[in-house]
Amino acid sequence: MLWRPRLSSSLLRETRQMGAGQDQADETTLLQCLYGVGFEELRIPNAELRMFLSLSREVDLLELERITTAVGWRPRPVRRVRRALRHSLMVVGVWCHDPRLPRLVGFARCIGDGVINATVWDVVIHPAYQGVGLGHGLMAFVVKRLRTMGVEHITLFADPGVIRFYQNQGWQMEPNNQRCCFWYAC
């Protein structure tokens, strides 16, 4: 017969909380190793998938090319894309979590001076992951980070087919109704 000590209900609760706290610390450490400091989890309707935003995790250029061609963008030379990312003010990846190999499913980058002006480019979510709020979460993250830097004017260039998506988030079309949208600081 196996003997187990009897724990009072309060001690049992405390023991479970300590174990849960350790598990949470272990998970946070793992997530920081995968996504870097400052990552954020995106909540989506599918509880089985976990999505993370990261400014720190390096973007694999072949994965990025896979996403951009999946949405119909023309291929761009990898060495030029690498150079563009290196010179960007901000590069954000959206990652579908897998502890062994997270998969890049979304992306955005910004250029600018980091003080007064910034422009958002290359916003993309893989078609298999569209429609669950990743694009909205990505853009909210980008705007929040730029505002934290103190950037006053944020512009965005978008294809005509996705302009309504940005307008629904508060972006305004430029006066000549071209492909440029603006985010005005309040």
The largest sheet is: 8 strands, mixed
N to C succession of SSEs: HEEHHEEEHEHEE
Mass-distribution shape: globular
Count of runs of 4 or more consecutive helical residues: 5
Widest beta sheet: strand line-up: 1-2-3-4-5-6-8-7
The oligomeric state of the chains shown is single chain
Which regions have little confidence, pLDDT < 50, spanning 5+ residues? 1-19
| Residue share in helix | 25-40%
Query: In percent terms, what proportion of residues is strand?
Result: 15-25%
Give the strand tally: 8
Radius of gyration: 21 Å
> Could you report the average pLDDT, rounded to the nearest whole number?
84
- For the termini, the CA-CA separation is 70 Å
* Structural class computed from helices and strand pairing: alpha+beta
Topology:
Layout: H1 9-35, E1 40-42, E2 51-54, H2 61-70, H3 78-86, E3 90-96, E4 103-112, E5 117-125, H4 134-149, E6 153-157, H5 163-167, E7 172-173, E8 180-184
Parallel strand pairs: 5-6
Antiparallel strand pairs: 1-2, 2-3, 3-4, 4-5, 6-8, 7-8
Describe the structure.
The protein is an alpha+beta fold. Helix content is 36%, strand content 24%. The protein has five helices and eight strands; from the N terminus they run αββααβββαβαββ. The protein has an eight-stranded mixed β-sheet with strand order 1-2-3-4-5-6-8-7, with helices on both faces. A hairpin with a 6-residue loop joins β7 and β8. The longest helix has 27 residues. The radius of gyration is 21 Å and the shape is globular. The termini are far apart. 23% of the residues are buried.
